[in-house]
């Protein structure tokens, strides 16, 4: 199923593509199809340990969602794969990326806003804190 949905002849992946593929491999693993070499290759293609951990989380989430789906319904492997991996494709703006759409990835895998830098003209860092105001 994985080979039919994704091309395995790739040189590099961005984080979103890697997460999508890792999620799909997790679903496949839960359905009894092993793609350990492809998964290792995807993880190793990430440039930072943060991105590698995000890809690993996506893999685990794929496994968990597939196990849950199989437990809750009597769907066959093809139906579980179709719903979780090949689900309805949605086009959205970059800032409005859904956490539950096609990839069915949890909000925990979203980009952490704490890492965003403050605006350059923001003076909040040097202003008096609110609790010191009368």
Question: What do you see in this structure?
Answer:
46% of the residues lie in helices and 0% in strands. It has helices at 2-5, 15-30, 36-45, 49-72, 77-84. The chain is mainly α and 134 residues long. The protein has one domain. The protein is built from five helices and no strands. Helix 2 runs antiparallel to helix 3, helix 2 (15-30) packs parallel to helix 4 and helix 3 runs antiparallel to helix 4 (49-72). Residues 110-134 have a biased composition (Basic and acidic residues). InterPro entries: DUF8057. Pfam families: DUF8057.
Helix content: 40-55%
Spans of at least 5 consecutive residues whose pLDDT stays below 50 are 88-92
Give the termini distance in whole angstroms: 65 Å
Helical run tally: 5
Give the SSE order as H and E letters: HHHHH
What structural class should be given to the helix and strand makeup?
A: mainly alpha
Give the radius of gyration: 19 Å
Number of domains: 1
Biggest sheet architecture: none
Task: Let me know the number of strands.
Answer: 0
Mean pLDDT, to the nearest integer, reads: 76
How would the global form be characterised?
A: elongated
Strand content: under 5%
What characteristics describe this protein?
single chain, DUF8057
Can you summarize this structure?
The chain contains 5 helices and no strands. With 134 residues, the protein is an all-alpha fold.
What are the SSEs and their pairings?
Elements (H helix, E strand, L loop, with lengths): L1 H4 L9 H16 L5 H10 L3 H24 L4 H8 L50
């Amino acid at each position: 199923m994985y080979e039919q949905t994704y091309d395995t002849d790739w040189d590099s992946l961005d984080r979103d593509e890697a997460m999508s593929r890792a999620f799909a491999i997790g679903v496949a693993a839960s359905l009894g199809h092993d793609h350990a070499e492809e998964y290792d290759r995807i993880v190793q293609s990430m440039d930072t340990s943060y991105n590698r951990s995000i890809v690993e989380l996506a893999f685990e989430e794929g496994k968990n969602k597939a196990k849950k789906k199989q437990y809750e319904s009597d769907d066959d492997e093809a139906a579980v794969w179709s719903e979780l991996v090949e689900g309805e494709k949605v086009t959205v703006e970059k800032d409005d990326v859904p956490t539950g759409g096609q990839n069915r990835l949890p909000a925990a895998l979203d980009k952490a806003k704490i890492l965003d830098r403050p605006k350059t003209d923001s003076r909040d860092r040097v202003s008096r804190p609110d609790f010191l105001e009368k």
